[in-house]
Structure formats: structure tokens, C-alpha cells
Design a protein that fits this description.
Layout lengths: L23 E12 L2 H4 L8 E2 L2 E2 H14 L1 H4 L10 E8 L5 E11 L4 H19 L7 E11 L5 E2 L3
Antiparallel strand pairs: 1-5, 1-6, 2-3, 4-5, 6-7
Helix pairs in contact: 2-4
Amino acid sequence: MSQFTHLDQEGNPNMVNVGEKAVTRRMARARSVVVLGDEIMDQLEHEELHTKKGPVFQTAILAGIMASKKTGELIPLCHPLSLDNCDVEIHVNEAREVIIDCTARVTAKTGVEMEALTGATVAALTVYDMCKAFSHDILIKETKLMEKQGGKRDFKRQE
């Protein structure tokens, strides 16, 4: 039976000791889905939304990358990582939902799932923040890990 890795034998929070783990190449991709509604989506031009604050998707991409780099400062038991790469991509699907994919890569003793999840989430929050002047009827529908490679086991969610 699996145990929570962030609890010691007395049930207190602790940081996982990665000292004996091997350094490997690791990748994680997370996705957030934002539903903006027709009022906002009708303003989409050339795959971008523009507000008084600036280009929504471009700003969200920068916010996602910045957040990924600060994950160790935001999540209490997360190891601080020096990312090899972080890529945030945003597109609109057929259902007119904003799809945000954040892919983080590192060569380290621990994975980058939290960095990818943080990047996707903060990018989604940035889209919300930049569009709320038009409408508060915005839904951050989901954030989930789509895939990871490296470490003990790989994972890939069916899209």
C-alpha cells in the first residue's frame, strides 16, 4: 500500500529526501481549461484577445512561465528546481474553450509535475484576471496533469 511521501512516521509534514535519488531528465505537461463565454470569445482576433491590460494570451504565457520558476516558493514541501525549460502554449478548441498547456523540463533528482501544474494554473488565473472586466461569468474548468516522464514511472492521460 502506498504511503503519503510528505509525512514522517508521526504524521508530521516533511520534505522528501531526494539525496540518494539519481539525476535524470524529467518532463511534465499540465493543462488548464478556461471557459470565457461568448461575450468574451466574440472578441477573439487572430488567436488573441486584447484588453486595456494588453494581449491576454501573451501575458498569460509569461505569467505561467514565471510561476513555474517560483513553484518551490509557493508549495511548502516542493523542492526548489532550476528548470531546464518551461513552455506554455495557449489555443482555443472547437468548443471555444481556452486550452493552456504548460510543459516543464528539468534534469534533477525530483520531478516537475508541480511546476507544470503551477504554470498552467497561474496562466489560467491570468486569463481570468485580464478578462473579468468584460464578465465575471468565467469558469476555470479544470487543471490536470496530462503526462510525465522520468523518475520511477511515466504517466500519460488519454486526451
